[in-house]
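ugh ok fine here u go
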Amino acid sequence: MPSQPCLLSINNYFYPRGGAEVVFLEQNRLFEGAGWQVVPFAMRHPQNLPTPWADYFPDEIEFGRSYGLGTKLLHAQRVIFSLQARKRMRALLGQVRPHIAHAHNIYHHLSPSILPSLREAGIPVVMTVHDLKLACPAYTMMAANGPCERCRGGRIHNVAVHRCIKDSLALSSLIMVETFVHRLLRLYDGNVNRFVVPSRFVLDKLVQWGWARERFVHIPNFVNVEQFRPDQPIGKRFVYCGRLQGNKGVETLVRAAARAKQPLTIAGTGPEDQRLRRLSAELKADVAFLGHLPKHALPAIIQSARAIVVPSEVNENAPLALLEGYAAGRPVIGARIAGIPELVREEETGALFPSGDVEALAATLDRFGTLPDARLAEMGAAGRRWVEQDFTAERYRDRLLALYASLGGGNERPGQLQ
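structure:
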């Protein structure tokens, strides 16, 4: 009888902190449901989900907290190359023999120090690229005045010169050193067999910055369509689901909703929460702030929408909120930036507007506010069909299984796979 296949699933956090964590956790559940043993490896954190493997997790690093000088220096070393994470990974590999290792977000917390141990153990490594970090030290290829490619060609000193990380010289210098060390030791390039990229935009950008095209596989994100009922009546309110932070374009959305006099519901929280509430009050906008909602409550909010709005002003990869809107049978209004346009078929599943353009978004909200419900339902149905064809959990699982099988059990070294 064949042994149960084992997936070593790696991510900084083991709770649904953001989009990357949702993909990571849903992928774990998906493979457990397919009969795999899934062994997680993450950072210790009070909000982590329970797991019998938690004893192998390295200590947490949480940059938003206040630490003493000694702890800060220790954290700086771990950001660059975590000896503790490498030690814990080696201990874990002494207890379990995975068929494949799949990493998600590991920089700054776990660090890529764990990757050579996996290669040395002969375990194929797949890594999902959730942002542009492999090229841009600051993840986004964005600066205050728009798109930024100053670090292209190895000129990574620019991340410190321009204080790209939280406008801090210390943090930006640390990330510059981190990037230099990782590239010098080829921690990603030399130890990852394949990179999974959810959007063609990010894939193309990484190739433009010098990565070999054959190292990447385009596998879109997925949504569990069973969680959504696409047959609900079209609602009256536009809906945004996500983090409330500057680069998500939520201020632009609030201003546009006020200008168009269209009702808006915002589900989520973040550092801009209170400021956006004040702005909404000042503009006398009809905005309902729901705060953080548990996962089980989100489908009902999305299904109640007139349309889902994804107003991002940063180089998004493949927003899950967009796919969830389609799964609920709702059209999507998306910003024309990064990976969003490849997920919106204009006038078929939704509409696009220039990112950051309040007037253009207001005009789009006004138009969608007056379109017949039947027309919006038609767009939503087209989005649902698209999701059912290309973005289901089953399609995602099958694509990953094909990729895992192509790696041949770890006998080939990174860079040699075709």
